[in-house]
Amino acid sequence: MTLGLYDFTTVRPADDTDSPLGAGGATLGLYDFTTVRPADDTDSPLGAGGVTLGLYDFTTVRPANDKNSPLGAGGVAGRGGEGEIGRGGEGGVHQANIAEMIEMRKFLLTREPEIMPIPGAIIPPQPARKKTALVLRPEAGLGLVFKSLQSHPGDSSDYRQARLDTEDALEYVCASLLAGIQHRSGVYAFAGLGYTRINERFYTDGARTEYDSIPDGIVEIYIDSNGDSLITRGNVPVTRYITYRKRTYNQYTVLDVPVILGYNWQQDRWSLGIEGGVFVNLALKSSGDILAEDGAIISLDDTEAMMRPRVGLSYYGSLRLGYAIDDKTQLSLAPSLRVLPSFTAADNRLIQKYTLLGLNVGLTRKF
What we know:
Elements: E1 33-36, E2 51-53, E3 58-61, E4 76-78, H1 98-110, H2 112-115, E5 132-151, H3 159-166, E6 167-183, E7 187-223, E8 229-267, E9 270-287, E10 289-291, E11 297-299, E12 313-324, E13 329-340, E14 350-366
Antiparallel strand pairs: 1-2, 3-4, 5-6, 5-14, 6-7, 7-8, 8-9, 9-12, 10-11, 12-13, 13-14
């Protein structure tokens, strides 16, 4: 008998006496036989020369005296499924070929690793995800400035209006470096160092008259009839008429320690987060020009008693849309709102506050 890999390759009719298997012999596929009985084993329930057929190849075995088989006596009908038990007889398996059949079976078994599909690689078990991760987030932003000037109760002066007429809030820029931890549930806490600069424009125009004198100047020259000159010296009055237009860009720079809590929802590569916190101010520096109460122009660099050196706590909130570049890096875009307390000293006639509405861009890196 010649054994194939998976299917029949040759089926011998019952009258084919040239088959090395005898009449009715067949070429069988891989996984055909589990037990082969010798031809003289009369105790076999399969009959002399019977064969137990294995899985995958045969479902019907025709007995040797079945004249209705399209294959002839002893033919085998084969298809996928579980094999059934047939019996040999005329056209069964010859005892002389049993040794050859067993050797072929051994050969095929040695080739099973080549025939049967084997996974190309075994995926190693993934390490357990850490509950918390260290996070570093640098970010920068800019936005609009909304300025508030308020008078103290009972102050009805025009100083507030004069300041409002000569000062325009422009924009702000900010940058920060935050570090903290993030839980795998999405909760995170950050702290770091932040820098914010608020830009304004001071402008005024007008006209004024200045009176001055030149000491030891020539007050009068008198020429007599003889042509002699008589010079009188003294203080010479000088009057100046001045028109002016002044433009100055004011800057208020604050240095803070942000303390932020947030929560992040993750969906594939995209995420949506919400966060809030406080900024603890370390220093305030002012530069530029403003109007004094008497209408004169004074420099903010010389008004330490007018502006606070520190402004205390400011409040911050933000929504954050993120996109994961890889497993550890995320790019985020965040509209933000920050409310700052008064910049002016407690005894100043005005309360000067700011609200910042902007957009931040951040890069989050997990370690």
